[in-house]
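Protein modeling request. Please complete all fields; requests missing the sequence field cannot be processed.
Requester role: graduate student
Desired output: 3D structure, token encoding
Chains: 1
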Amino acid sequence: MNEPVHSVEAPFGSWSSPLTPAAAASGSSRFGEVFTLGSDVIWVESRPGYARRAALFVSDTSRATNSEFLPGAEISARSTVNEYGGGAFWLHGDPRTDGRVYWVDAVTQRLMSAGADALPRELASQSPTASLTASSTASSTLAQAGSTPARYCGGVVTPDGRWVICERESLQAPSLDLLDDSPGVASNSEAANELVALSTVHSESVPLVGLGQAGSGDFTACPRLSADGLSLAWLRWDHPDMPWDAAELWAAELRYSDDGSISLSKQRRVAGGLVGGTVRGLARAVSVCLPEWSPDGYLWWCDDSTDWWHLYRSKTVGLPDEGSGDSADPLISGAEEEVGEPRWIAGGCRYGFTDDGSVVFAAKSGGFDSLWSFNLTTRERLPLPGPQFSSVDSLSVQGRSVAVIAGQHDRPSSVFHIDLSTGAVTDLRSAQVAETASSDVATSDVGASAQPPLGAGWVSTPRHISFPTGTSPDSGAQAHALFYPPQSPMFHGPQGESPPLIVRIHGGPTAAARAEFSPSVLFWTSRGFAVADVNYRGSTGYGRQYRDQLLGEWGVADVQDCIAAARFLAEQGLVDAARCVIRGGSAGGFTALAALCFQQQWGCAGTFVAACSLYGVTDLAALAADTHKFESRYLDGLVGPLPEAADTYRERSPLFHAEHLTHPVLLLQGADDKVVPPAQAEVLVAALEHNHVPHAYVLFKGEGHGFLKQETVVKALETELAFYGQVLRFLPDGREPAVENLVGWPPAPSSGRMGA
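Delivered output (756 residues):
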């Protein structure tokens, strides 16, 4: 690594960085959906300075202005459907004139709307306990047992504005023989996920695709309405499948009666599921995602019938024939890339349609996203003008305008407008125009800054690596990662030394490491750490076959791949084999703990010398028993069905093998976590204490599954840095490291040398 002549030699990990814990915690925004509305682009963003309110912002692309949308309404749009939410706002016309904006209130989860008067109103058609259909006694008992209101997301509005069609998640009424005075009665009833039409003019609500209706399932989601309002498409899947295993695409006619009511008819499966896989000659089901209607009336979707989540289009305009999508050809065949993505959250889109017969889409390949246009007539595929984006969250297309939430490896994610007619690109959050030939998007003082908190000399450039994995070197198995070397214009490591490595594991586990400007990565690389963000077998972005390699193997394949990544990088001389640590959140926390726990039995003792788990799983059986509906059968595929696979759950759970945890462990946990309850961490803490394993446990009040408060993120980063300082024996930022409540670990020596 070539260092600037003015850089100072200093132990890895001890480098000072302008990316302080406070800067890393406060310098980024969280985005939701983006919509185009004439010359305006509207998006949802939780940004510093707005008390983390998920506010709506608007930018007039013709005048380069940026402001809060309907500020008088004080909109905070966030849904908690399936716990992961998404799809929290949508539009009908222009709310500043004669239209309305609809959103799910972040606090109450009630469905709200506002118009030009900016006066928020609740939709009268939503019921407090929408799916309670038994008796008044049942409703009363559920209310006493602590039942919650129905939750909504992913809405669309009929052309006449009289109906909102959206996802609804609500409790079912329990059987009457379960009704008694004991608490927790409601917990015996699984939530109902359905599509419902809510009237905007009176109190009527109509279940369109609910329990027992055609096209319904354990999960019914993602309603999409054709431009003429006459056809509705949606997704459905059943336990024990997850949507990326076997989701079906359904469609139906939407009928409006003279009396003002609404209903569906001619419901049919269009593509996907086990039937779709059988038609294709596959020994598996097909997963469909991201349905959309093009302005000219065709139904579009992504499915993985050719291994990759490619784009497909119906053969005819309007309501497609039954099963007609099973024999459709992908828009672009042979490309090893994915337009589709796992359906963790509602809302968002990865493609849209221009007015000249082209489709604009984001595609992921080799760990990186890119933006393309494809002309349906000429079959010409072209990259979009503007910056070379490395990650794309969502996009919206209208006419010749593209709005996209995207990021680059050296700049934070932002909202961009791309004018396909001129090639001009505007960073809407800084309201500055960037020329097509330049990816240098400047930032003004208007709105929230997209300027990186680090200069270019501090930013580590990721590169995609592939490496052999598995228990046998002759197996031919491969895994992937994004590798970030340490980077600083002020410091370089001691001559002849390699940097320590942090192996990061993404959550999910059916997700992927994102090639984006990440303060949580750069916080470490700017201090002298190398980082490997592992896309272990089972990660998305590499096709269905790669994704399915985790089925039945969670706790094995992912762990092997993380160990293999560390050993591969050490063999290449890129990191110090004696100073590798592993960290992850949620499912990634489980993998981190399992790697530390089982590395010795796989002949890889000492690969990792410490682990940090953020709200991570410790007991697989407890996760299966305690988690929410969306993931309640997730482990059937990843580990095996219960009770048949009970022994496997125990064998792979770090909780029951704490005697193998002989290296230090840091546990960071949210007190209000519903996905991975604190009890999972606390039982492991007790085991670590019993076995005299060095460890620290920090519980953050008011935090759920993923930390949102700035003070929490700051404390977590400070604690983790100090933890590595004590374990690897270096002085973070020149100060003696000290982790509060680090049990069983001697104080670090005063030497500044790592590993001294």
